């Protein structure tokens, strides 16, 4: 085998020097000459680049070879497969040489081999220094001939020469010969025996300066391309050992197992063993590098045997080195790889059909492709930088016991599994493709890349930490029982849908926020940890339990967890940002619920919530039993559906401003001190137990029942009506303030058990029954309207108390006492409107006797009315109290009429409606004599005006006045033909009326439509309008202690007007005098009142007519320029009502007596003034602001403003 030499420039010595091929090694095993030179075999004329460096020597002109780049390689002077060149002599003595590698022997025939060359002798290169001599190692020959069953071994390289007298260098060992060298392209090689590359020769030894390095081992098999089927053993030769002596030589590099030199494509099927040679040893120097198992480009390798790199410097060499092209590697059962896989360039396809584990690291700049239907598991730390593509099958990183790591982006069209063993692993590269990602390991994995894979994510175990909003790609995410999802940064927002199995833990760090817009589905549950805020905005359908261990779970928009099995809230549950509130199955825990202004509904309640509910929203329990064990501050309504229970226990309470609509069960029996409610309504039941229930607030009607033996307290100014059967209640009821009514007029069957105490500022009334005693220190009013209140026990009235009785011509209220009645204080009689004659009324009965008398009697009649000649008297019997109305002259028959009170509101509503109708007509007529600037060529206009006003009408003839606040709008469209105009308009007005003197009130909602026209006759404009309105009217008359008489009805109105105006120019002004007349007629239907018992009236129709001639003068001045003109107008006018202004309506009491309900009259004179400003923000648009006032010259005044927009088409 021949040697390869190069002449190199040594920068350190400033001279040319000779370097052997043995100094070069592409795996980086070269050594400096003080410890020897590493050798590599020469193969088939392949010329390797020399990487060396020169260092200063104690002997002048000596060059040492090092692993560096400070020497520049130039023209080679020898190549393999030829005899080594003889060293030249230039007068010096001594020198050194290195043995060359032997040539390969197999030429491509299957199973046979022949020698193809012999190792060349080492050369001597002499220097001028005297006494320097050396000998060289002999290169190994190729393997001997074989018939296919005999082992083939390349011949070992010769040993390096020693140093002559005064020599500086010992010779390097010869390179081992190749086991088989196939030089035929597309060869088909089959090996069932053992092929071994020759061993490298040992380096020369001496005692003086530098000893020789060991020779490189020979390649086991070298081929161009084609195929190789190996069931035997192919091994690279071992590197030679370094020489010893003055300094130690380095070991030679091991030979590669299989070296493929072509790039056309080679298929290797290995069921046997392919191994790189072992690096030569060195006694004190560096060991030679091991040979690689397989080296080449465009390889397709299927392995079920063993492929290993040789051991040596730096550990085990690569099992496989892919040097470029498109490669494939299939690992089958029994496959063993020792050493890394290097992908220098190109790609490698792992085409797996079964599950295989690769513990080797993958290095280089190339890429990895995973295909097939099997699973490839990587447990090494791979550093290849070309990226990873999963075309099919599964790539698994780690096996649970050992980590598997890769670098670079992943195109995942199959399945990527993370099953790491380390406590925390981060994968920051991007994952794309149509495949899925699985977190299978029990540890923590962080995905922080900008991922776009669409096949979904499975978190089967451990915790998956996301570092970006796209970390989970775009597909559905499935979490298994015990798995965790952690948000690794604040502000992350996920759009993925989720499938939950078992209970998964979602973690948001304290102070961080995160949101999920997708839906959470399936049978699993969610446990929130970490202390941060997680917001759900989707309509989630998962049915497992929601556990808030720490932090805040917030619902926003349409966010819902209604199908979750329940919420265990030990943190914060926040629904304040939802659109319409939230519904949950159950609520337990000790955390906080933040309602904001939204309602929370509990549909299948069970368990106790010991936390606090806050906000202005409300709580509904629609099923099951919900127990509240702590003080709650929410102020919205509390609703209990039929079949549901809301229980308060311990310190449990709801805010005193929160009313309860109880159609199920409200149970306060387990509380420490009871409960306070604003009000109570519904048809359910209240279990008081031995506690106290306080009703503190507004009006309410409760048709349900009370049970227990505790106490019921009615506080506040409101009225509480109890229409249900509370006969099972045996406690005490205290009416502390306001009104308690036991049974209204429609529920005389109502029952309240126990005793009732009426305090000084309170009233008890009703048509029902109280089973116990009644102690009256305030007011008892049987009925409320005329009716009977029954007391099952005794009745006691104190000296400061009042028994209030309502009397009509045909009946009177009555207090029926089944026990005894002890009387004192005041008897207050209210006479309803009607015609009275001599008669008797039984006001009180007591089955067990009447004792005492009322200390005084008061009567309430209509203003100015009396009982005439009828006199009232009381008769106290043993068991009753009777009121007698009789004439002072017993022989005469007298009739007394008691008129109703506070009836002027009926006429006030009609008067305000007519005045409003006339005002609408006036506003329309104001615009009809104006010829808009810029209207030339325009034939259509649209306009709208918004108005607001306050009108005060004083009382006349002793009747109260009223105030009317009104707002509305009017809009129209008109078209011009020459100087004529015709249009239509419509609008809406709302009026609120109030009579300060009586407390009565009313409302009007009017819908109006009008047509109008205008014609110019020279300088005079003639205009007119006709209109129709539909009015919805209502009025209320409150009576203290009795109720409010109210009624509503419909009215119709017709309006019309005619006007003449003549605009005139006057020194830059436009002066427009106008005269006209306007008419309005209102017919309002009759109606019946309700709500105040005997005070309710039947009200007749109301007919109002108004005719008002008027005159007005307007003065307008234009400012600005033609592009942005501003018009200012002032006006003053006067109208006169010429029809009868008196106002009265016929009403009748419940006994049919007719009365006239008079009200304040229509004003006669209307002196008005106003100012307006008009602007043109656009060429075709005019905006006007107006202020108008009605000056009080009669008994009415008003002021109002309007905004009007005109648009010319």
From TrEMBL:
Stored InterPro entries: Autotransporte_beta, Autotransporte_beta_dom_sf, Autotransporter_pectin_lyase_C, Autotrns_rpt, ESPR, OM_autotransptr_brl_dom, Pectin_lyase_fold/virulence
Domain Autotransporter per the UniProt entry, residue ranges: 935-1209
PROSITE patterns, per the entry: AUTOTRANSPORTER
Domain of life: Bacteria
GO cellular component: outer membrane
Region annotated Disordered, chain positions: 80-105, 275-295
Keywords of the record: Signal, Virulence
Compositional bias per record (Gly residues), positions renumbered to this chain: 84-105, 275-294
Protein name, entry field: Outer membrane autotransporter barrel domain-containing protein
């Amino acid at each position: 085998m021949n040697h390869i030499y190069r002449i190199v420039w040594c920068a350190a010595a400033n001279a040319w020097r000779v370097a052997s091929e043995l100094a070069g090694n592409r795996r980086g095993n070269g050594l400096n000459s003080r410890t020897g030179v590493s050798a590599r075999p020469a193969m088939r004329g392949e010329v390797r680049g020399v990487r060396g460096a020169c260092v200063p020597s104690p002997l002048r002109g000596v060059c040492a070879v090092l692993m560096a780049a400070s020497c520049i390689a130039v023209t080679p002077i020898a190549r393999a497969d030829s005899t080594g060149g003889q060293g030249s002599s230039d007068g010096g003595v001594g020198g050194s040489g290195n043995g060359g590698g032997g040539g390969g022997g197999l030429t491509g025939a299957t199973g046979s081999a022949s020698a193809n060359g012999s190792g060349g002798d080492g050369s001597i290169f002499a220097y001028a220094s005297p006494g320097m001599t050396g000998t060289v190692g002999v290169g190994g020959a190729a393997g001997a001939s074989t018939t296919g069953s005999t082992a083939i071994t390349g011949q070992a390289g010769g040993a390096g020469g020693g140093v002559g007298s005064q020599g500086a260098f010992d010779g390097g060992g010869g390179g081992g010969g190749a086991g088989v060298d196939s030089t035929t392209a597309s060869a088909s090689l089959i090996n069932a025996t053992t092929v071994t590359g020759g061993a490298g020769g040992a380096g020369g030894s001496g005692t003086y300066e530098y000893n020789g390095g060991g020779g490189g081992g020979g390649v086991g098999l070298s081929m161009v391309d084609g195929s190789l089927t190996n069931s035997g053993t192919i091994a690279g030769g071992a590197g030679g050992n370094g020489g010893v002596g003055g300094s130690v030589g380095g070991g030679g590099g091991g030979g590669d197992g299989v070296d493929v030199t072509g790039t056309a494509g080679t298929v290797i099927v290995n069921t046997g063993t392919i191994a790189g040679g072992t690096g030569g040893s060195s006694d004190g120097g560096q060991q030679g590098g091991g040979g690689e198992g397989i080296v080449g480009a465009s390889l397709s390798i299927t392995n079920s045997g063993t492929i290993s790199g040789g051991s040596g410097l730096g550990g085990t060499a690569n099992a496989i080195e892919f040097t470029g092209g498109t490669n494939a590697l299939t690992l089958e059962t029994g496959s063993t790889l020792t050493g890394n896989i290097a992908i220098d360039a190109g790609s490698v396809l792992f085409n797996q059909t079964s599950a295989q584990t690769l513990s080797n690291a993958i290095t280089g700049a190339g890429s990895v492709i995973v295909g097939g239907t099997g699973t490839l598991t990587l447990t090494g730390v791979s550093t290849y930088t070309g990226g990873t593509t999963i075309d099919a099958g599964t790539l698994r990183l780690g096996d649970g016991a050992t980590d598997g790591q890769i670098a670079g982006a992943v195109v995942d069209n199959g399945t990527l599994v993370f099953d790491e063993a380390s406590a925390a692993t981060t994968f920051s590269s991007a994952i794309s493709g149509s495949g899925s990602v699985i977190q299978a390991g029990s540890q923590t994995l962080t995905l922080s890349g900008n991922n776009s894979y669409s096949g979904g994510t499975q978190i089967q175990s451990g915790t998956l930490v996301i570092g970006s909003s796209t970390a989970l790609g775009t597909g559905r995410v499935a979490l298994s029982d015990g798995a965790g999802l952690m948000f690794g940064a604040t502000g992350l927002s996920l759009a993925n849908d989720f499938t939950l199995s078992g209970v998964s833990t979602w973690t948001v760090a304290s102070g961080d926020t995160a949101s999920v817009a997708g839906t959470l589905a399936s049978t699993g549950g969610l446990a929130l940890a970490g202390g941060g805020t997680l917001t759900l905005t989707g309509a989630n359908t998962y049915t497992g339990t929601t556990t808030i261990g720490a932090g805040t779970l917030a619902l926003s928009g349409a966010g819902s967890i209604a199908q979750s099995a329940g919420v265990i809230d030990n943190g914060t549950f926040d629904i304040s940002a939802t659109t319409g509130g939230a519904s949950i199955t159950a609520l337990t825990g000790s955390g906080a619920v933040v309602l904001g202004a939204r309602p929370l509904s509990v549909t299948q309640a069970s368990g106790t919530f010991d936390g606090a509910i806050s906000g202005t929203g409300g709580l509904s329990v629609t099923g099951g039993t919900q127990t509240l064990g702590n003080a709650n501050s929410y102020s919205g309504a509390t609703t209990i559906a039929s079949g549901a229970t809301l229980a308060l226990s311990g310190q449990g309470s709801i805010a005193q401003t929160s009313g309860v609509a109880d159609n199920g069960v409200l149970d306060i029996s387990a509380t420490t001190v009871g409960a306070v409610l604003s009000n109570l309504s519904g048809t359910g039941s209240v279990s008081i137990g031995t506690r106290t229930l306080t009703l503190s607030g507004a009006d309410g009607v409760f048709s349900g029942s009370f049970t227990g033996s505790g106490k019921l307290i009615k506080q506040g100014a409101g009225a509480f009506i109890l229409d249900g059967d509370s006969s099972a209640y045996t406690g005490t009821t205290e009416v502390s303030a306001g009104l308690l009514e036991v049974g209204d007029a429609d529920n005389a069957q109502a029952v309240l058990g126990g005793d009732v105490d009426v305090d000084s500022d309170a009233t008890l009334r009703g048509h029902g029954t109280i089973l116990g005693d009644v102690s009256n220190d305030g007011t008892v009013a049987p009925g409320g309207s005329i009716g009977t209140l029954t007391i099952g026990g005794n009745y006691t009235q104190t000296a400061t108390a009042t028994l209030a009785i309502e009397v009509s011509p045909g009946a009177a209220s009555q207090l029926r006492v089944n026990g005894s009645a002890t009387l004192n204080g005041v008897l207050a009689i209210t006479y309803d409107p009607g015609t009275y004659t001599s008669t008797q009324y039984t006001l009180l009965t007591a089955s067990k006797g009447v004792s005492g008398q009322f200390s005084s009697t008061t009567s309430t009649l209509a203003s100015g009315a009396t009982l005439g000649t009828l006199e009232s008297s009381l008769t106290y019997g043993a068991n009753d109290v009777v009121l007698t109305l009789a004439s002072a002259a017993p022989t005469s028959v007298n009739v007394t009429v008691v008129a109703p009170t506070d009836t002027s509101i009926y006429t006030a509503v009609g008067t305000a409606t007519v005045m409003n109708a006339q005002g609408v007509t006036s506003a329309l007529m104001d615009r009809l004599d104006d010829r808009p600037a810029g209207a030339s060529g325009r034939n259509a206009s649209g306009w709208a005006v918004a108005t607001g006003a306050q009108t005060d009408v004083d009382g006349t003839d002793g009747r109260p006045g009223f105030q009317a606040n009104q707002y509305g709008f009017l809009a129209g469209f008109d078209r011009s033909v020459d100087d004529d105009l015709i249009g239509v308009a419509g609008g809406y007005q709302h009026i609120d009326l109030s009579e300060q003197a009586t407390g009565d009130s009313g409302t009007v909602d009017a819908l109006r439509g009008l047509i109008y026209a205008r014609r110019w006759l020279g300088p005079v404009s003639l205009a007119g309008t006709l209109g129709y309105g539909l009015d919805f009217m209502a009025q209320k008359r409150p009576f203290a202690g009795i109720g409010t008489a109210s009624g509503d009805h419909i009215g119709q109105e017709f309006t019309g007007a005619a006007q003449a105006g003549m605009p005139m120019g006057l020194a830059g002004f436009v002066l427009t005098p106008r005269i006209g007349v306007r008419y309005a007629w209102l017919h309002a239907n009759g109606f019946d009142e309700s709500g105040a018992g005997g005070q309710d009236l039947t009200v007749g129709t109301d007919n109002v007519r108004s005719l008002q001639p008027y005159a007005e003068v307007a003065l307008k001045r234009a400012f600005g320029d033609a592009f942005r003109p501003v018009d200012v107008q002032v006006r003053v006018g006067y109208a006169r009502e010429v029809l009868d202004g008196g106002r009265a309506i016929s009403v009748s009491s419940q006994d049919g007596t007719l009365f006239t309900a008079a009200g304040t009259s229509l004003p006669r004179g209307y002196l008005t003034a106003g100012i307006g400003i008009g602007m043109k923000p656009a060429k075709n648009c005019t905006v006007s602001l107006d202020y108008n006032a009605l000056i009080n010259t009669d008994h009415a005044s008003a002021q109002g403003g309007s905004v009007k927009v005109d648009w010319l088409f």
